[in-house]
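Example 3.
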Amino acid sequence: MQQQDTPRIQSTPLSLDVLLAHTERADCGALAIFAGTVRDHHEGRAVRSLTYSSYARVAEKLIRDIEAEIAARFAVPVCRAVHRVGALGIGETAILAIARGAHRAETFAAMQALVEAVKHRVPIWKEEFYADGSSAFVNGCTLVAAEDLPPAESRLHCTPTQSIES
Amino acid sequence: MSSGPSPCITWVDERVQVTVECCGVASRIAGAEHLAVVLPEAATVLDLFEVLAERSTEMAELLARCACARGDAIVPRGTQLADGDELALLPPVAGG
């Protein structure tokens, strides 16, 4: 089956079967799959559910840019990531990422790089809802351009979770 | 009698109005999902941030780590804004 271009941000449950069917390649002997699921705790607090939101206009473009960048860097034909938005319960899949390559080494590496890049560079936000009835947005990586950051600021996870209680 | 534009029309022409979508925690801190902001002509993203920072100390602290998007691209703070721009305020991200 030829690769199909489908939305990278989805409000409906993610399907690994669909993702695999849309990316089949006869020239790839390796397939690496990652699924990120909602866990029931964060930094010692019991989590009941999550809500993901995104700025889809930028997120859709950035995920495609990242896929192309990682595919070129690791010389693999297929990199694909999809991220769920909306309310998710414990155990539901928030992100699926796959890489297909000729051999396993570059395919594993590409899949891991893809997941890291999507987590750190795509405008997606996570609000956690706790067992005690409160909620908080999880703080993460800034998307501010390097030239606009103060000298001491890091782009990556550099601060503990900054909770905005509600 | 002069046939030039009225002072009122001149005043409007010298400003740009933009709308800002507040994403993630920014909507909670701003108290709104969308803001309409009027800025001087030739204003930049940095000028917009300075206006928004006046809303609260918490907002000012968040803005230091916020990016700004226009269309499908993240734009630097020196970017000049145009009347009618639809922007988005992007706080630090936490996907996955």
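Strands of chain B lie at 15-22, 34-40, 67-70, 73-75, 86-90. Chain B touches chain A at residues 21, 23-25, 28-29, 64-67, 69, 71-74, 76-77, 88, 90-96 (CB under 8 Å).
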